[in-house]
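step: validate -> pass
step: tokenize input -> pass
step: predict -> running
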Amino acid sequence: MKKSYKKITITRVDRFVADMKHILSWTKINGLTDEGQKYFIKNKCKFINCYLTSNKNLLGDLRYFDVILFNVQDVSEETQPLPDVRSSTQKYMFVATDSSDNYPVCNPLYDDFFNWTWSYRYDSTISYRFITIYNTHYQELGSHFQWNYNMKPIDDAIKTQLASKSKAAVIFMDKCSTRSRREHLIQSMQSSLKKYNLTIDIFGKCGPKQCKRKNMNPCFWRLRKNYYFYLAFEDSIAYDYITDIVLNAYKNNAVPIVYGGVSYKRYLPPGSYLDVRNTTVEALVATMYESIKNREKYYDFFRWRNHYSIVKAPGMDPCVLCELLNNPARLVQKVSYDHFRKWWNPLYEKRCEVDMNKFLIL
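step: predict -> pass
step: emit ->
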């Protein structure tokens, strides 16, 4: 009996130079939409010999791609079939722009599946940030530096900018039911604030006051002019996960009250914020009240402005991926996330409520 073999046609593509690195987005990934070399040339990357595509048939065989990118949403929700062939030399890369609590990975198939990761996690192969810190010389400080704990007081010019404030706190919120249960925390804070005759205003779909996402400037103006504090509450609690919602406060002369799974002291200037998870609701509310009544105490939250700038990070940068693909040592290195599910979410079993029979591989 003759065996049947699947015939694979390899398409020759003359426009590719010999050392071109081919990157396949298995499914759509936000921020990685430019086809071909366009992004790398346009952004003047250190290396431009990378070709990004979502066309699985471009080379005729999936094994000819140097790296294949898999989106966290599709991996978590298993919305797409996986490749049926794989080269021993190509890299499978997990790409995440959302938290591990919102998108856990439950299927054991993904243990020992990925070689590289690209996420907000500090220990990812490529790590990115939602915010960037600069010093007064406009030098990006990166991740390894010592905060200044002896910051000088603010001057009268900054104090004048804070003079019109009269309301306690505000949050812009369109997602009303969250994994972090921030909506319940807000209710608890509202109850505690009543005894001080203070309130939290909620703008957006989750409250009576409206903010239009297409034009947030009127809401930012109100925040800058009227509110002492902004509730920078993440919608999920995950290790290392901090988004740019803190910038709503920092960019608009308010003090962020943070709530998330990250160690904020690593990412935010000391004395510039209040952390819900480091105290009780009652103590937090009391600190808010004392800071409102004592302007000098409130002014201390803004000492960071004499030393740092906090801005939104550019996001995922394919230049970094292309540089990685041009590093021979990293390409030959045999790396695999043996326990990927636990790395991505240490509480994955509880989060997934894993039923191993569901993922039984025959």
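step: describe -> The longest helix spans residues 281-293.
step: cleanup -> pass
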